[in-house]
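**Entry details**
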Amino acid sequence: MASDAIPLTVHKSSLSVVYEWLATVDHKKIGIMYIVYALLFLVVMGIEAILMRLQLSHANATFLSPQVFNRLFTLHGTTGIFFVAMPILFGFGNYLVPLMIGARDMAFPRMNAFSFWITAFGGFLLYASIFAGGALAQAGSAPDVGWFAYAPLTAPAFSPGHSTDYWALSLLVAGVGSIGAAVNFVATVLSLRCPGMTLGRMPLFAWMNLVMGGLVLVTISPLTAAQIMLVLDRYLGSHFFDTDAGGSVVLWMHFFWIFGHPEVYVLIIPCFGFVSEIIPVFSRKAIFGYPAMVAASVSIGFVSLGVWAHHMFTVGMPSYGNTFFVLTTMLVAVPTGIKLFNWLATMWGGKIHFATPMLFSAGFLFQFLTGGLTGVMLATAPFDWQLGNSYFVVAHFHYIIVGGILFTLFAAFYYWFPKMTGRMLNETLGKWHFWLFVIGFHLTFDFMHIPGLLGMPRRIYTYEAGRGWETWNMISSVGAVFQAAAILLFVYNMILSYFKGAPAGNDPWDAWTLEWATSSPPPDYNFAVVPPVRSRRPLWDIKHPEDPDWKYE
């Protein structure tokens, strides 16, 4: 009888496995669900980008109608920021932060699950708009007001039907999920660190998630308020953004960009954490200037709250307003420069091993620097007056979003996939992925600056021949094909490696933070016994008792 019962205890039915994932409050499962959800929307967002690049590849193209083009760039931008970048970073944070600080779970496990599901609902609600239009909305139109939805484009006169309502409500409910996740990150990092792990010994990735959580708590509120005001304007006859009735379209811009520009730092600061963990391991050196890195990250968080109106230099602000936002925008480059110097100093003199995570991290350093420099150019108000709302701006922020955030995310996948699955990703396929994506990225976004300098406005669905834009747009479109091929190779690599990858072991990179002290993948309880923490590199101390870090810290 005992032997008959063994299969029942070992093998779970498919239904019970599905229920286990749907009902879980385990931070690791929730983190993986965030990541898989975001990867699905990454594919959707990429398809939207490919369709737009096909339309813009040559002059007078008729592949897409102007209405469809407007819907595509609205969905592409909204999906990329709210339903790819934020969920995937929350996913990595959920999975890794408790492991890095020696905790059993996040501070509020049930709220953690609620945050994921309400965020997921927001994404599905956005795309439900495609199937839930009406006669005025041309039978199922998606939102077409741009990802920042400037008034008066969102007024009922210019956006009939319900597509804009779906857009506003999807961001409203996703914002609830973001606030719940941020509360969890802050509470977990401040309250659940294991014995010996002071703030000064905490991994930089945990620090970055603490700063990110604080920024989310501050910046999601204005966006939520703006969405509520928009819904009130559309349904209850209020006039917050109706200039004919005493409202202000510029008010929407202020509310949106008070969220919108710190949001860039909400996304990039956790990516700083990825690079700060990966570069030291593959340089075989401790991070250079740990206190300066922490101070710079906190400084970026504070300064980023005072730069939003550099998106509004062209609306006619007074000179002292322009001057203030020019100075604050340039000021944020100072702590960012400190971080770049510290990463380079960590690599300097190290025994660098260019495995795939390090390749993507090195690519990030160059591309983030370049994207930051074009940002400083746009921070100069007279320069911005010439190039505001041009393709130069599109190229700049894609340099940050793709060249910065997406490259570090790929580095994180290759670095932590073994911990999550117990299997290594294929290094050969990883290097092919890297080089294809680098080539595609630079073909698309390097050459996108040029039509911007030549006066090509953003958000146009076609253009006349003879303006000097055709060649540059064709090159950008070819680059998008390279990027799509690289993403397909990445997906293939993950699927192949999940089933047939080489066993990873507990610590395949000979790393130093606590997540590598447990099995791969970790058990439900994370640690049977938390290793002692006496320095910033606790596993180094265990592996090298003759030369521990705590002697020098």
User: Anything to note?
Assistant: The two ends are 59 Å apart (CA to CA). Residues 182 and 213 are 4 Å apart (CA to CA). The mean pLDDT is 93. The longest helix spans residues 66-100.
